[in-house]
Amino acid sequence: MATLIDSSVLIAIERERVALATVLAEHGEEEVVIAAITASELLHGVHRAKSAKQRTRREAFVEQLLTALTVIPFDLVVARVHARIWADLATKGINIGAHDLLIAATALATGATVATRDDRSFPRIPGLTVVRW
User: Fold this and answer.
1) 112-124: b or e for each residue (b if 16 or more CB lie within 10 Å)?
2) I need a labelling partner for 75 at 20 to 30 A (CA). Which of 4, 36, 85, 117 fits?
3) Is the pTM of this model over 0.85?
4) DSSP secondary structure string for all residues of 48-97
5) How many Cβ atoms from other residues are within 10 Å of residue 23's Cβ?
6) Beta carbons of 63 and 35 less than 8 angstroms apart
7) How many folded domains does the chain comprise?
8) Contact indicator for 72, 36 with CB cutoff of 8 Å
9) Domain interval for residue 115
């Protein structure tokens, strides 16, 4: 089974200036992946940089991630899981951010565990295995 990393973990790695290889080595042989929406969130951060220096640094970090990690696409299988969990949660009156729902659906569709620093959203999604990195 793979571990799907949420952007909260990746942003923490960037801010703490910890090498991605070091973090991955700490978590064993398991494949580490990201959802397509996470790639979009990271690229959005590049485009929102406040200075050229910050943009250059962020872009180098994000491109390193995109080269090192497999990006799981949003496909029809993930779309079906997404629609089901979105409807189930809405019926229960539980609101979770759109991006977090997409990440959760990607993890559920692929059998992955979500690694995150977000203790609010992911634990409220039934059937989702969540670890805190």
Assistant:
1) bbbbbebeebbee
2) 117
3) yes
4) T-SSHHHHHHHHHHHHHHHHHSEEEP--HHHHHHHHHHHHHHHHTT----
5) 18
6) no
7) 1
8) yes
9) 3-132
What pLDDT digit, counting tens, does each position of 9-50 carry?
A: 998 888 887 777 787 788 778 899 999 999 999 999 999 999
Tokens 């799907």 sit at which residue?
A: 4
Token duo for residue 88: 């189930």
> Cα dist. 91→31, 48, 114 in Å?
34, 35, 23
CB 85: neighbour CB atoms within 10 A?
A: 20
**DSSP structure class, residue 123:** G
Model confidence pLDDT, tens digit, residues 59-99: 999 999 999 999 999 999 999 999 999 999 999 999 999 99
Residues 6+ apart with CB under 8 A from 117: 6, 8, 9, 12, 132, 133
